Amino acid sequence: MAAQIGHSQKAKPLSPVSVTFLGTSSGGGPILSRNCSSLALDFGNEIWLFDAADGTLMRLHQSSLRIANISRIFITHMHADHTLGLVAIMMTIMSGVGVKPGENEELAKLGKKKKASFHIYGPAGIRKLIRTTLSVTSINLAGVFAIHEILEQGEEPSVDCEEENLHSNEAVGIDFIANDDGVWENILQQGNGKSGKGWSVKAGPIHHRVPSLGYVLEEPIPRVQLDTSSLIPLLKSNAEALASLDPPIKHPLSLLSHLTSLPPPPPYTLPSSDVIHPPPPSGISPRKLVIFGDCSGGTENSTFQKMCENPSLLVHECTNGHIPHDVQRGEKGMKIRKKDLEPSLEAKRDKLFFHKSTDGKKGHPHENGNGHHSFEDILAKDDEKRLEVQKKALSRGHSTPEEVGNFAKTIKARRVIVNHFSAMFPSPRYPSTEPFPSILSPLSPFPYPSPTSTTSNAHSYDPHVEPHPLTKNEIHTRLIMQSLADQITEIWSSPGDDEVQRMAIPSRDFMNVQIPSHELSDIEQDDIRRYREELDRVMGSWKECGGVWVDLPKEIGRIWLGVEPAPSQGAKTAPQEGNHIRFKE
């Protein structure tokens, strides 16, 4: 009987996967604290970009990501704030600085035989945009790229891939046509990618003002490790017989990589009649990522919605949202927000964002928290403004926390990160790129996002740049962004759903999120629990009293940060114990 050998009972560890946000602003940006849309999915030695706004190349240079590892770029839709950085990135990855005269002319003669090492995917128009830009700017490239258009049934590609129309460095791209269900299930089949990562990519339609795509990325089923201690001697003992086969296998140990290739190959019978098998599944759940472009909440396509179910991570836009009065704090809070907005938004900020009272009165009916208006009145006014913001966002093909929360709940997302914020939502200035920094951590010393810790910053010759003390403006910004996330979490992760700690995350430029497993790891849940405990204390104090007590360095001492005066001695206030953070001396 043929023996089945070579299987270890030990599960192969999952490869590192992380997401770095390079641009988190909507098309109303960029602003100082947020670039427009882009994120990087890092597999360790291969990087895929999703969208590439103008300025993405600079964000890549500022980050710790290795630009040379970018092998694919996926575009969600053709709006300028998602595409204008494409060619600049190509110029860096495929720099033609060392190309000799006549070299690209010889490359062009290969015509349709060229093989691409760099790939771009996107809706109709992406091929024309890139080819036209390269042509009119006479950019010199090295290497070969291919542009693949993702088309609906009956839709024509923006330009064809006939030999006479190809750029000298361009290989023939694929025109992916939607199936009868209106989705694209084979953008990348399992087995593509370097080092056996092999993630597959599918796509589906989402609703926006122009055709927009969502991408679903799935990891190959994790498998146990090969038992090389038994396989290597067996393969070496068959070396002579394998070399005499037609075609010959000159290197018997090459069968080890064959067994771990994707998709898994059938069992292989050696000349000795021993049968070697690809490793079986380990029982570990594969990871699945859902990355959406601009949309008015989820997808209207039922087939695509099913494809999105049970993701390890959902990245969804949240362009706008209403901030409840107890977080906004009426006119006083508005003045703080207005002060920190970009000067370019000065003329339109009131018209577009700070809604005037419909009853002719200035500000909110509960502006001072003096009890002159009932709690029911406050809730009614908040609900009125929430619906107003939601109506406007949906009319523009965008989402608010309600749409994100409902979709995340429907597809049972394990993690949720939101991006594409209106320019009216500047980014908090945390000194960390972690997803759950302390809400009371000091202020980054830079007025723009910093990709590294302030203890080893690349922006200064000084090896250590001290953080700045926290300010009331900054804590207000942090709580406003957290309010958006909390509105999503309240819908997505209802109490009693399960025992897992979950929290939606508002993204920031350079924020890096590890996806170590399909389900949240114990470390992730501990981080969320720690963050939530501190946040509840701070948010409670802010909502009740309009501020929070904070312990700053000893030369400053304990101070009150808020839009309202510090509570007097004996006044009702939120518990102060733990409502502060002490800096390292």
TrEMBL record:
GO terms for molecular function: 3'-tRNA processing endoribonuclease activity. Residues 355-374 are annotated as: Disordered. GO terms for cellular component: nucleus. InterPro entries: RibonucZ/Hydroxyglut_hydro. PANTHER family: ZINC PHOSPHODIESTERASE ELAC PROTEIN 1. This is Ribonuclease Z.
